[in-house]
Design a protein that fits this description.
The structure is a homotrimer of 258-residue chains. With 258 residues, chain A is mainly beta. Chain A has one helix and 30 strands. In chain A, a hairpin with a 4-residue loop joins strand 29 and strand 30.
């Protein structure tokens, strides 16, 4: 069946790269640029206009960029004024509000809700149903698991918004909540259902409600191998840039390239 | 691009006010009334029929009302037999089951799931992904943050359903759970990831799993201003009816109008 | 309005039973079989192809079965290579990834996200927004309430996936998290917002973060009747196979039929 170009709406000034494929019932609004080989599946809305669109006759849709070799799964809504890197992929029914900057090789899972005005580095994977409040900054190689919430209002309701900041390689397990303005270092593991209310240094294991630091991640032994699992890049490579050469060699290459 | 009237299905006895706009791929079932200036965005379903529709040849869709100046964002499903006030707005992919009564100036965020048979007052804002069980009663100026759940079955599974009741001005932070039949007073703040299992009076600050009252909200000092933030209507006005005159004057005017 | 056969896409080798009804804007991909009297509501995608579809020209969609007398509510996505029993029903916007085996008379609520490679027995009901990780095995008559998460990776990220296993009749209340590989016995009640981290025997009541066994379910007294509510099949029959004859008689009949 593949791509039938059935019931597709394209706005003005839509730029599609080579070999872009668009599923049925897709709407792409004005001023969207999509990179080569990217696939937009059925029922997506790309370049969704901002609120003024409905009330301001002179509204101009801001530009939206989605990189090359990306896969946007069905029923996803990506607002205008987003800048998304190459090799991006989404699950189904993802919502990405305006003014996000998302690096290359990121993934955003089914039902995740990015509230806009936020930054995500490279190779960071948000699984299903992650809620990212405005002002959040997520580093590189950060994995966030289902139903995690990044909050931003210390005294709701207020107009004082302060996002959290998450360091490289940190893992945040399911159903955890990151309170407004909290900084979490690199290489941490936040356990399931943890409420993180204070600044956390590097390499920490944090669990509980309220969250407490109970040790360093190096102390966590894999049930599978009987060896220390963290730092995880030594033990997980699928989809990572060190997939072919191993983490150590890749790290050295990175230093060398600098 | 705006409104192209493309692939729209309208049932019988659909009454659209002046200047109503309807996006692409929208289905509106029988006996729906939509007020002036309301906007229904792409891919919405309005007046979704109740279960009997599929099995009873003589099924008649009950009436559905959506007020004036409302904005129903894309992929939202609103069942039949709902009564929704003016200046209503939804995020994307909202689901509102039958028999809800929702006052004016309410907002329901992306992915929220209202299970039907419930009441919401005026100016109450449900953010993304709020789950409201049947029988819940939410007052006026209540703000509910992402992934909050209002439950209703004390001994699951049973047929004894008892909703919770939330007083005016109360704020319920992310990922909290309100147990069946719990009453929460007015002006409370329920902290993030709190499990509320008992009746809570007015002005209380409640945190933890299980939730404990740890003080009055007046004791909470704003990190931004260094002053007490609650009662919040003195410090937050955006979208509120006291936006132009301040909360004190508005309160006096309310008394006067009575 | 009912079924207009408007904007429907059918792939090759789609087999529809007698009296199957298909809503507007539905896409059914290749090699899908749907049983008699089943209803597919608006905007659903059935037989959603696996990832190779987009990159492999010789991709063949695996077969997908949905049983008789099922009701698939609008905006639901069911991947290819699923085997789903009779009398199945979904809420809206459900996502079911590939390689699930789901028995007869199951229900999966609005926004639930089944990640594939999992098993669910008969008469099990997942309410709204349940997240089921790969490798999970859910027994018969298991009810799972909103925002429950079944996890599967003990040391994220890893390639060592170990699902949890849930015994017959067990009830898992809202917002609970089941950690990877955890086995929960039959007839348990897991309270709201519980983090289940260890093996749980039969008939246990578990609450808290971390979850603790605080007694047997038989000790729970119904607020409505003043009597013990569990084992619940003696006190709840709607939709259950003992609805007409009572649980005791049905149990005896089961033994007899063996």
């Amino acid at each position: 069946m593949k791509f039938n170009n059935k019931n597709i709406s394209l706005g003005l000034n839509v730029t599609l790269g080579n070999n872009v494929k668009i599923g049925d019932n897709v709407t792409i609004y004005d001023n969207v640029t999509i990179g080569d080989n990217t696939i937009i599946c059925n029922n997506c809305i790309i370049g969704e206009p901002l609120g003024d669109y409905y009330f301001d006759e002179s509204y101009q849709n801001p530009r939206t960029f989605i990189g090359e070799n990306s896969l946007i799964r069905s029923h996803t809504i990506i607002y205008a004024n987003n800048e998304i890197g190459d090799h991006f992929s989404t699950g189904h029914r993802v919502t990405i509000r305006e003014n996000c900057v998302i690096g290359s090789n990121c993934r955003v899972g089914t039902l995740s809700d990015l509230q806009g005005n936020l930054k995500i580095g490279e190779y960071s994977w948000l699984h299903s149903n992650v809620h990212v409040g405005q002002g959040t900054e997520i580093g590189n190689f950060v994995f966030v698991y289902p139903y995690v919430i990044f909050t931003n209002d210390p005294h709701p309701p207020s107009s004082y918004i302060v996002g959290s900041k998450i360091g490289d390689y940190t893992q945040i397990a399911v159903s955890s909540v990151i309170l407004p303005g909290v900084e979490i270092g690199s290489n941490c593991l936040i356990g399931a259902s943890t409420l993180v209310s204070k600044k956390i240094g590097n390499n920490k294991l944090v669990v509980g409600n309220p969250g407490k630091i109970i040790g360093d991640v190096e102390s966590i032994i894999s049930k599978e191998t009987g060896l220390s699992h963290y730092p995880w890049p030594y033990n997980f490579k699928r989809g990572m840039p060190w997939e072919d050469i191993g983490y150590d060699k890749w790290l050295k290459k990175q230093d060398y390239d600098k």
